[in-house]
Design a protein that fits this description.
- It is a single chain.
- The chain is an alpha/beta fold.
- It contains 7 helices and 13 strands.
- It is globular and about 70 Å long.
- Its cofactor is Zn(2+).
- Monomer. Associates with 30S ribosomal subunit, binds 16S rRNA.
């Protein structure tokens, strides 16, 4: 048996890089389909070789982490990429990406790209929202080179995923931090202000300075991970200093009286837009709970 990492799945084949950096083209055992067991990019697997090129995936080893969208395993850092302009940043979608990363037990790092298109005065309000909460943020520009060294340092010796909507510059950033990748890049639709998909599949790419990174297709919308409504506030760290002072132990910070979180929103201690996203997510979770238990 040879142990390795799945670096790509395409056309029913899985490409496994072993510890000697050799890549095997593998098919999964038939029982994987019968047992409905998925093989994800990033999985550590055991394979049995057939010849000098091909093999069969015999076993998927236990996963440390697992993301649903994008579907990858064993990632320890999620680079959530959003453009500051062209397209305009959708902060609701950004908060969904952050929640998905944290629900998958993966540290999110927010990368605001295309900083060259805005002035410092325009950039600061967006950064302040997430800096004050405690999220790590990086401001980048492929055009000027701003933030690229910091991004390389974040990627070093980690298995990271680049995630975000289409057109924000994920592939361009990867081409900049790792010359030679030559990933396809796309233009923004002037009419729709959305990017065209340029990444067609999930693939694990090895970096020269150590570590791996996953380039993924962009997404314009995301469903929330399955969770209880009582768990949602735990993914909004800015609420941690307030919810203990709520009148009710099971406060959802929505319609309950004497809610310390709502008071903090009114006083400006919690960002109103982030709180609005929390309420939207809460309503979505409650809706799915009612459908499930109906």
């Amino acid at each position: 048996m040879i142990e390795g990492t799945v670096i790509k799945g395409y056309g029913g084949f899985y490409y496994v890089k072993d510890d000697q950096k050799y890549v095997w083209e593998c098919k999964p055992r038939g029982r994987f389909k019968i047992e409905k067991q998925l093989i994800l990019v990033g999985d550590r697997v055991q394979i049995k070789t057939i010849n000098k090129k091909n093999g069969v995936v015999e076993k998927v080893l236990p996963r440390i982490t697992e993301l649903v969208r994008p579907p990858v395993a064993n990632i320890d850092c999620a680079i959530v990429v959003f453009a500051l302009k062209s397209p305009e940043p959708n902060l609701n979608l950004l908060d969904r990406f952050i929640l998905l990363a944290e629900a998958g037990k993966t540290e999110p790092v927010i990368c605001f790209n295309k900083v060259d298109l805005l002035s410092n005065e325009e950039v600061t309000p967006v950064l302040d929202i997430y800096d004050k909460i405690g999220y790590r943020t990086i401001v980048t520009s492929v055009k000027t080179g701003a933030g690229l060294e910091e991004l390389r340092a974040v990627l070093k010796d980690h298995i990271s995923v680049f995630a975000g909507p289409s057109g924000v510059g994920k592939s361009s950033l990867l081409n900049a931090v790792q010359p030679g990748l030559q990933l396809k890049t796309g233009e923004i639709s002037e009419k729709l202000q959305r990017g065209r998909h340029t990444t067609r599949h999930v693939e694990l790419l090895e970096l020269d300075n150590g570590g791996y990174v996953v380039d993924t297709p962009g997404f314009s919308s995301l469903y929330l991970p399955q969770m209880l409504k009582e768990e949602l506030a735990g993914f909004f760290p800015e609420m941690n200093n307030f919810w203990q002072n709520c009148r009710f132990n099971g406060c959802l910070h929505n319609q309950e009286p004497d809610c310390a979180v709502k008071s903090a929103v009114e006083s400006g201690e919690i960002n109103k837009e982030r709180y609005a996203h929390y309420i939207m997510f809460l309503e979505e979770i409650v809706f799915h709970e009612r459908r499930f238990y109906k």
